[in-house]
Each structure stands twice: as C-alpha cells, then as structure tokens.
Automatic annotation (TrEMBL):
Cofactor: Zn(2+)
Alphabetical UniProt keywords: Metal-binding, Transferase, Zinc
Protein name: Uncharacterized protein (DUF849 family)
C-alpha cells in the first residue's frame, strides 16, 4: 500500500504575534495575500488565515478585513483556504464564526475545549513596541480563558455544518480528543475528521515527543480509521515536531502564526521560507508532498468552486 502524501498547512499570521516581534509578520491585506500566495507556491496545500487591522496590525475578525485578501489568494493559487474561528480570545462564538459564515470556505478551525491560553511572557522581551496596543494585549493574556464550551461547539457546528465546511479540530490537550469523540457520537461532525495536535502553547500540552505519541495513540483508539491528523509545534518545537509527525504518517503545519523563526535565534523572512524548509526535510526523509487537489481528496473537501469569495 502506497504511503499517503504529506499535507503542508501554512498559518500565515495568527493572533498571538505582534508587529514588533518580526518585520516579516504580515498584517496588511497586500502582505497577507502575497505571503499566502508565496507559501502556496512553495508547497503549502492549505492556507490557514486570520485577519488583521491593516492600520496597526491588531487582531480582526471583521469579515471586511478578510474580504480584502481572500479573493486575491483564490485567484492566484489553487490552495485550500482555511479560515480561523479562533480570532480574538475575547469574542463570542457568534462573532468568531462570522467570517466563516460569510465566506463559506472549504475549511475552518474548531477549537475543541476551553483552556487557559497565554503568551504573556513575551511582553518582557521587548523594550519598545511599534504600536500602542501591543504590550497590554500581550501582558494581559494571562487573564484569558479561551472559551469553547460544548454549547459553543454545538452552535458553531450547527451554523457552519450546512456550508459543508471541513473543520480543522484543534486539540491542545488529550481531553480535547475526548470532547471531539463525544461530539462525533452525538452527530456534530462526520468522518473523516481532521485533527490538528497542538503542542507548546502555554495552557496546553507541552512539546515533548512522548506527548505526541500519546495523543496519536489516544486518537487511534477513539477514532480508528475515521480521522486524518496533523501536528503544530509552537515556537522552537515547530520543525522537529513537523519532521517527526511526517515520519509517523501525519501531516504538518508551519507558518509565522506558530513560530517567527526559521532556526534557533534567526527570524524567518517569510512564511514561504518555513514551507520550503519543512518541504525539504519531509522530502529528504522519503515522503511526498500533497498537492491541493490531493489534499482535497484526502480530507474529503467540497472544492474551491463552492466557496463564497
């Protein structure tokens, strides 16, 4: 039996890192579109997208800010577009799913549990900031609870389900897998589901390979052949976890949302640079990279013709 090809997801900008942390972090529509297209050209078959306020780089979940780049990316690449429903940690689930409801993408993220979600230690790494909002936003993240109750998940699934959107089920800890199994059992999601194992976020499971093996073994037990999976290693865990996941038969996620670096102590110059690096590693280790068409087949997606942008 032929080995399944490896899907590379690239998460272009996210909601954690701020403009001060890296000049490469895109936040204008032009930069988000350009970096997304370049990442696709480098080998990413899925583009995981957040929006930013174009004037100061702040996090945005306004559909209008997504509209400024989504059509341009679709016109320039065949990559699968995956819209975040995470966005700001302070918004309601109705506000967070508004962009996905508006644009009906092939994929969107779905966090599978409430959790402490913090990046406040980053506030002490910088003496000055480019924009006034940044320091307070970072420092106050130790007060955040990222809310994803069962009612929230059910609401999002019921609203987005009619759009035939495939969810990237983001699981930050082993309990999130059991939450997902419960939701499968009551009919909220249909196979094949796509799980993103996430390691290294403060508040979630730590970036140790033993944890990856445990999460994978748990998912095998809970979901059998009904799931596909990928790995996100935050920060310094990015490349090592991606390489390990590819050798275990999984898919990989990179991008400036998850790490600003290309190697220890060296900032990446773009999202595409990270895609090029993980593609080289994965191919050197004997795996083939999935095209967007192959990713659509592996994940049973509805196709780019059925989106609303």
């Amino acid at each position: 039996m032929a080995k399944q090809k490896t899907i590379i997801t690239c998460a272009i900008t996210g909601a954690i890192h701020t403009p001060t942390m890296s000049d490469a972090l895109p936040y204008t529509p032009d930069d988000i579109a350009r970096q997304a297209i370049e990442a696709a050209e480098a080998g990413a078959s899925i583009l995981h997208l957040h929006a930013r306020r174009p004037h100061d780089g702040g996090v945005s979940i306004e559909p209008a800010d997504f509209a400024a780049f989504l059509p341009r990316i679709k016109q320039s690449t065949d990559a699968v577009i995956n819209i975040s429903t995470g966005g700001s940690l302070k918004n309601t689930i109705e506000e967070r799913i508004a962009p996905a409801l508006t644009f009906s993408p092939e994929m969107c993220s779905m966090n599978m549990g409430s959790m402490n979600f913090s990046f406040h230690p980053l506030a002490d790494r910088y003496e000055t900031f480019k924009f006034d909002w940044e320091k307070e936003y970072i420092a106050n993240s130790d007060t955040y609870i990222f809310r994803n109750t069962f009612a929230d998940i059910r609401h999002a699934a019921s609203q987005l389900g009619p759009h035939d959107i495939k969810f990237e089920h983001e699981c930050y800890d082993v309990g999130h897998l059991y939450n997902l199994k419960f939701c499968m059992d009551i009919g909220l999601f249909k196979a094949p589901i796509f799980i993103q194992f996430i390691f290294g976020i403060l508040g979630g499971i730590g970036p140790e390979i033993d944890n990856l093996i445990f999460m994978k073994r748990t998912a095998d037990r809970l979901f059998g052949k009904d799931y596909r999976w990928s790995v996100l290693g935050a920060g310094g865990a990015q490349m090592s976890f991606a390489a390990t996941a590819s050798q275990m038969g999984g898919n990989v996620r990179v991008g400036l949302e998850d790490s600003l670096f290309i190697r220890r102590g060296q900032l990446a110059v773009s999202n595409a640079e990270q895609v090029v690096k993980i593609r080289r590693i994965v191919e050197d280790l004997g795996c083939e990279i999935a095209t967007p068409a192959e990713a659509r087949e592996i994940l049973a997606l509805k196709g780019a013709a059925k989106v609303n942008f």
